[in-house]
Amino acid sequence: MRLSCEVNGERYQIDGVWEGESLLYVLRERLGLYGSKNACEQGECGSCSVYLDGVLVCSCLVLAGQAEGRRIVTVEGISGGEGLHPVQEAFVEAGAVQCGFCTPGLIVATHDLLFRNPHPTDAEIREALAGNLCRCTGYEKILDAVRLAAERA
Ligand code: FES
Ligand code: FES
């Protein structure tokens, strides 16, 4: 099939797509957008989180065919231009990155949280990021990063 969709503000027409492949596969293997990570491929870890028409989704659970005509924003697109988004800066400054595999998903999820709730409590942060697994940091630095981003929001 030919897949037509918008990714990070650019229109794409991608030929030869199998309807059953995942949106994550399309992003990484067909468009070369490697920010969204492929860890579990079953909706458990959040490392592949992107926006689909403004809604936070696990792109490993979205079929390519479901992305037809839709608007997708990945971690590469959230800053909307040159440089880092404040959420990305906060993760760097707080030292919330070790191997970095979970980081893109956490950044997109944090971006979504702060858009909906600019000043979340710790409990709200934990709830919002409950679907994003990190096997390195112990989460404390990630919480620091979200608090830092919220202070600046
Ligand atoms: S790779 Fe999609 S949730 Fe883990
Ligand atoms: S920094 Fe390695 S999994 Fe989170």
Automatic annotation (TrEMBL):
Residues 1-78 form the 2Fe-2S ferredoxin-type domain. SUPFAM superfamilies: 2Fe-2S ferredoxin-like, CO dehydrogenase ISP C-domain like. It holds the Pfam family Fer2. It comes from the Bacteria. Keywords: 2Fe-2S, Iron, Iron-sulfur, Metal-binding, Oxidoreductase. GO terms for molecular function: 2 iron, 2 sulfur cluster binding; metal ion binding; oxidoreductase activity. PANTHER family: OXIDOREDUCTASE WITH IRON-SULFUR SUBUNIT, XANTHINE DEHYDROGENASE IRON-SULFUR-BINDING SUBUNIT XDHC-RELATED. This is Carbon-monoxide dehydrogenase small subunit.
